[in-house]
Amino acid sequence: MNLNFVLQSLLNGLLIGGVYSLIAIGLTLIFGVMKVINFAHGAVMMLGMYCTYWLFVFLKVNPYLSILLVIPILFIIGAAFQNFLINPIIKAPEHNQLFLTLGVSLFLQNTAVFLWSPDYRVLKTHYANITYYIGDISISLSHLLAFGLAVLFAAILYMILTRTDLGRAIRAASEEPQGAMLMGINIKRIYWISFGIGSACAGVSGAAITTFFPIYPYVGDIFVLTAYVVVVLGGLGSVLGAFVGGLIIGVADSIGAMFLPGAMKSILSFIIFILILLFKPTGLFGR
Amino acid sequence: MSQPTLATSYLKRGLSRQTWIITGIILVLLHLLPWAIPQIVHIVIMIYLFATMGQAWNVLGGYTGQFSFGHSLFFGLGAYVSTLLYLKLGITPWIGILISSLSGIALGLFIGALSFRYGLKGPFFALIMLAFAEIFHMITMGWNAVGGSPGLLIPLKGNAPHLMQFTSKQPFYYMALWMMVGSLYLVWRLEKTRTGLYFLSVREDHDAAEALGVDTFKVQMIAMAISAGLTAMIGTIYAQYLLFIDPDSTFGILNSVEIMVRPIIGGPGTVLGPLLGSVVLTPLAEITRLAFQSYSGVYLMWYGMILVIVIMFLPHGLMGMIRQIIDKYRKG
């Protein structure tokens, strides 16, 4: 195991970590505002991937350009999900909301199996094989673009949350819903907007990886499991935590892959997950 | 004769003679079923196995309020422990099932000791169970000594009762039936014992129960042990029934979903809920599996839809609905 190999896998881990970050930011935003762990987040991400795929196959839309369409589509799906399914039972015990998102996840994933078959699909583009070299270390363009897009959207979201009235309202609603309501914030509106934004984050992450990751109905499971790890590591509800956590877990996975067989590479991140849950459930950046 | 207090009359558990007779008749009929309709024996075995696991999940999730999203952990452990003991050491699965159950209890108590000590509950407990199941999933996938991703095949020895192998399905039918009836009886009795009430107190209000002197840690550990041990036993029976196990079908996330979805739909925290859920969902799964061979996930689409509808409109599951109808009938 030479230095180049180590640097190479750390870099790959960091790049995919950026994608984990964006998925986790969507999840943490939804949790922060509604205190619901969205088990359908992976299914929503899968929808984003299929959106990009079908736009590419039928309309020849560039996969990166299609993100501009994926955002509004997934925003509407997320907002509708919140408005029509979660909102009616928002007062029910929290486990009912967990089960509901689980049901929606099962439904979406297996409807995708029914409509589009469980086969792996690959979106072939000519730039999927472009790689750059720095010394002996290779950087694939598609990984780099996915990382860049994830960081860009995370930054935009951070700006929205910190610099705009909507963002302030969202943060107020997640910190002190009662107080926010008394200050004249329409909590119900904030709920569906946050759910929409969170789902759009998952959709964008999905779309950004279609050029180098196979597309199939259960693809979201892999990413969303990692996203739970990231969210808990960063502190549930903390956007900054989710971002840093994503990078850490990406690197931890690549370290795991250096020492363990392929199927076991995520063991390290799951052990981190369990330790964080036990000893510091508020996470690195949680309050 | 002393006047029964509120507590003793509540703790008494009994059924009217009429109900006992009906239950007895149903039991006799169920014993005759493999001769009457041999075509459906497989589906009914699956109904019993999932009803029993649903009951196990129900003890921890429905009664004690700790929702496990990773019960496939105990199922897989049970399947792997007995199978490995047989394949590597030649130990008969009859002893294997006991060791499976004990290791399930041990692992359950370990996870319980970690999580309940730190007051983990709600989504956090769900996630930690999911994480443990996923770790075992990854280990069995990557470690070739335990079969790796292709899984383990138990060599067929013909009709070998001492190895828990039978050429006909009927012995499994009776094993599954008795496990199901046994778990049903256990939970029915448990519901009205002091421990059963402690379970409910933890579910309803953990802090209040603690304040009133309930040892919530111990109570949750008991629920965990019952739940884990029972699920692991079913894991062994399942492995012996199919003679094949692999990481996805045992430790996979979907299997956890399969285990929990029946009690949730049937009515969590009720004695008959898991059985009712299994009676409704298992045939649905088995029949659609036959009808759409290559699209074998389609039944999960129905699960998802039923789950959403039940959560939105029947918060107490199918049992809640039945109870409502009975109440209405009695009043009207």
Describe this structure in words.
- The complex is a heterodimer of chains A (287) and B (332).
- In chain A, 72% of the residues lie in helices and 3% in strands.
- Chain A has a single domain, classed as ABC transporter involved in vitamin B12 uptake, BtuC (Orthogonal Bundle).
- A two-stranded antiparallel ribbon of chain A has the order 1-2.
- In chain A, helix 1 (3-34) packs antiparallel against helix 10 (239-259) and helix 3 (67-86) crosses helix 8 (187-209).
- Chain A has helices at residues 3-34, 41-59, 67-86, 94-116, 141-163, 165-175, 177-182, 187-209, 219-234, 239-259, 267-279, and strands at residues 131-134, 137-140.
- Chain A is built from eleven helices and two strands; from the N terminus they run H-H-H-H-E-E-H-H-H-H-H-H-H.
- The relative contact order of chain B is 0.17.
- Chain B is globular, with a radius of gyration of 20 Å.
- In chain B, helix 4 (72-89) packs parallel to helix 6, helix 5 packs antiparallel against helix 10 (216-242) and helix 12 packs across helix 13 (273-291).
- The chains are: A mainly alpha (287), B mainly alpha (332).
- The interface between A and B is large, with 46 and 43 residues.
Q: Which strand order spans the largest sheet of chain A, edge to edge or round the barrel? A: 1-2
In the predicted model, the low-confidence regions of chain B spanning at least 5 consecutive residues are: none
The CATH level-2 architecture of chain A is identified as Orthogonal Bundle
Question: What is the molecular shape of chain A?
Answer: globular
As laid out across the biggest beta sheet of chain B, the strand order is 1-2
Shape descriptor of chain B: globular
Overall domain count of chain B: 1
Q: Please provide the count of β strands of chain B.
A: 2
Order of helices and strands of chain A: HHHHEEHHHHHHH
Oligomeric composition of the shown chains: heterodimer
Largest interface: A-B, 46 and 43 residues
Q: Work out the count of structural domains of chain A.
A: 1
Q: How much of the sequence of chain A is in beta strands?
A: under 5%
What's the CATH topology label of chain B?
ABC transporter involved in vitamin B12 uptake, BtuC
Number of strands of chain A: 2
Count of helix runs of chain A = 11
Span of the ends, CA to CA of chain B: 37 Å
Topology pattern of chain B, helix = H, strand = E: HHHHHHEHHHHEHHHHH
Profile the largest sheet of chain A. Answer: 2 strands, antiparallel
Our Rg estimate of chain A from Cα atoms comes to 19 Å
